[in-house]
# Entry
Amino acid sequence: MTQGAEKIRKIPIAVPALSDEEWQAIREPLLSGWLTQGPKVSAFEKEFSKLHNVNHALAVTSCTTALHLALAAMGVGPGDEVIVPAFTWVATANVVLYCGATPVFCDVDITTFNIKVEDIASKITERTKAIIPVHLFGLCADIDAIRAVIPSHVKILEDAACAAGASYKGRFAGSLGDMAAFSFHPRKSITTGEGGMVTANDKDLNRLAEIMRNHGAEISEEVRHNSAKPYLLPDFKMLGFNYRMTDLQAAVGLVQLGKLQSFIKERQTWAEYYTEQLKSIEWLKPQAVLKDITQHAWQAYVCYVDPKIAPMPRNDMMDVLQQKGIATRPGTHAVHMLTFYKDKYGIKADDFPGAKACDQNTMAIPLHNKMTKEDFDYVIEGLKSI
# Structure
């Protein structure tokens, strides 16, 4: 297909990097008949915790349920407040409400897109129970700076949805706070279709989350079925959820996890290529990276379109690129500007100017492990043509 002399390519924003290896991996649970949470989930958890240098990992149905489970294990409930960045996916705030607590929004830095540390102190009250720093697009939040401004009793729950394999000052995402939550959605670097992971170093927090994950049962289905008396049902001493990952998903996850470091290395190479090739476009600012502090996982390559000097608004630009076959997306959204939160809490868009600016001006361009050099060059030329 052509438009004038220009050949139109179709470059999606993200494509999961799957192969025959993942296809073959699901044969074992299919043939064994053990499809729900079982030995593959246990193996996936073990390898994930090992890779991220954290004591415990629990596989769950999504990052949203991972966040909810972690907050529940931390004892967050009615009357509590949890600080969340105003620029993040809506789930970060939603899970606070699931617990009956109140999300307290904090502004973000328009260069890193992560929570603005300078604004955190003013959000802390006697009701503050936790804070959820988001490692947005794979860039770890400045955890040490955050820890320096919050009281010691306030728990840190890392929203590491985009940050599998990312690190901060030599420490992996997932090991930086009290607990963390990861996503394996198809737009992430590694995928299990849907799926998530909860990590923790504290054995008591992990044990609470483990029980809550399985309806509140004292033992898992795998342990019960492999016991001498599998017909005896477990006791239930607390309210729980059904947030278990399946062995089918975990079988895929194990294969994907083995490729994570190579995926990140490849994404790093192409992210640097983008940055170098696009540096002449003054109105396009890539996400700021502190190379000596963070190892970016590059779940997405997100830029800030400077509205003061850009030739057109961000949305018009996205439309132009779409016509060329180049998929783009807003970085994410400002949760405080969404109708539900705006109406519920009476928040104005300008209450968090950094988040508002990021909502209106960030743009993700294609970056995934199925792209070729020709694809990257086509995206670059598309942006330069604007």
Remarks:
- Residues 20-257 form a domain with the Aspartate Aminotransferase; domain 2 fold (CATH 3.40.640.10).
